[in-house]
Design a protein that fits this description.
203 residues, alpha/beta, seven-stranded mixed beta sheet
Amino acid sequence: EAFVRFSDDQVRGTMLPPRAAYWTSVARLRGAAVAVEFGTDHGIHIYHAARSFPSVRWIGVDPREGVVADGNAQAQRLGLANAAFMLADDPATIGIADCVGVVDVLEHVLHRDAVLDGAEKMCRPGGAVVVTTPHGAWMPTEDDHTAPLDHVGVQHLASLCAALAERGDVIPAQVVSGTFSEPAPNRTACATYLPRVTGEPGV
């Protein structure tokens, strides 16, 4: 499957940085009715996606109760009927989505397989998982404290695709700029895969 190549001009109107626009574009190109961002944090991507693409239901999933409560309250204030937030351990998230985005999350956690396991459970059969992470040469160990900011892992695009290939069929990916203002060396590795194991609603 082929996906559009992103430039700052192409996504500027959505108010989404290219790494998040990659996820929303994959969701729309795959005809997703429901798209999830796993590890949504402050929910900025959800608000902008819901406003820009009202035909899709956008759900932010996070393990923190405060994030979910604040996200739902803000979505209501903004009048975004197609936006919602749910807790990661809510059984209702199992098999809920056609496309799950893990947008710049893996570099912040040590147990990355657990994150991807969770994302796959949220996928309906035939769904896709979109992963983005900073693209760089540094590969840490658990006791390596030289990470930039709070990052605990950065991967090359090739190593990211290789890791995801162990979990499902990887769709060709590319590296896009991190934000409109970041310099060229600051890149994001983006990949999509079709997981072999997905969630079933009600399981």
